[in-house]
């Protein structure tokens, strides 16, 4: 095998580390995108029985956004295994307890329910903020593009840029805005 071919072979089977910023992203829309990288669906060697997926780091899971009133309507079920051990938890309660759990459950739900799902989920690393251990951060070589743009707050826009916007109404000098 030539040296070039060996490099291509290694590059195909190597596990790559990706990073995804979950700020203002819907976890149930982002889950299929994250699943694609976790399972290795984008690789030319993908096969359902082949374990060729990559590592994905999800940051800022504390700042996810659910649509409409999903914070109050979405319910997560858990059962302890004992009689009367069923419990239902609202999304906002679960997010207050563990900010990483909603993203984890969304990705887990989007994967096919086979025996590899549990082992594939071990390559998903979720952090509630952008504090990542340095040994993980040095492995990252790709950033996954966000599905939804993060809106800019008015207080973050510099004053010079605000003054450049053309004014539609010119108020008199003695006019008082209320």
TrEMBL record:
<protein>
    <recommendedName>
        <fullName>39S ribosomal protein L13, mitochondrial</fullName>
    </recommendedName>
</protein>
<keyword id="KW-0689">Ribosomal protein</keyword>
<dbReference type="InterPro" id="IPR036899">
    <property type="entry name" value="Ribosomal_uL13_sf"/>
</dbReference>
<dbReference type="InterPro" id="IPR005823">
    <property type="entry name" value="Ribosomal_uL13_bac-type"/>
</dbReference>
<dbReference type="InterPro" id="IPR005822">
    <property type="entry name" value="Ribosomal_uL13"/>
</dbReference>
<keyword id="KW-0687">Ribonucleoprotein</keyword>
<comment type="similarity">
    <text>Belongs to the universal ribosomal protein uL13 family.</text>
</comment>
<dbReference type="Pfam" id="PF00572">
    <property type="entry name" value="Ribosomal_L13"/>
</dbReference>
């Amino acid at each position: 095998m030539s040296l070039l071919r060996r490099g291509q072979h290694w590059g195909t089977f190597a596990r790559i580390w990706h990073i995804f910023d979950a700020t203002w992203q819907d976890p149930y829309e982002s889950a299929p995108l994250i699943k694609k990288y976790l399972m290795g669906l984008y690789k030319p060697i993908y096969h359902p029985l082949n374990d060729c997926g990559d590592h994905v780091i999800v940051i800022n899971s504390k700042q996810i956004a659910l649509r409409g009133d999903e914070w109050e309507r979405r319910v997560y079920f858990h059962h302890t295994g004992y009689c009367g051990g069923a419990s239902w938890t609202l999304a906002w309660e679960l997010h207050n307890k563990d900010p990483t759990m909603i993203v984890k459950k969304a990705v887990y739900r989007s994967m096919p329910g086979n025996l590899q799902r549990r082992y594939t989920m071990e390559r998903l690393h979720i952090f509630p903020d952008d504090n990542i251990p340095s040994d993980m951060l040095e492995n990252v070589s790709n950033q996954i593009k966000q599905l939804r743009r993060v809106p800019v707050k008015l207080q973050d826009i510099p004053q010079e840029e605000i003054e450049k916007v053309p004014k539609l109404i010119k108020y008199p000098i003695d006019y008082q805005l209320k």
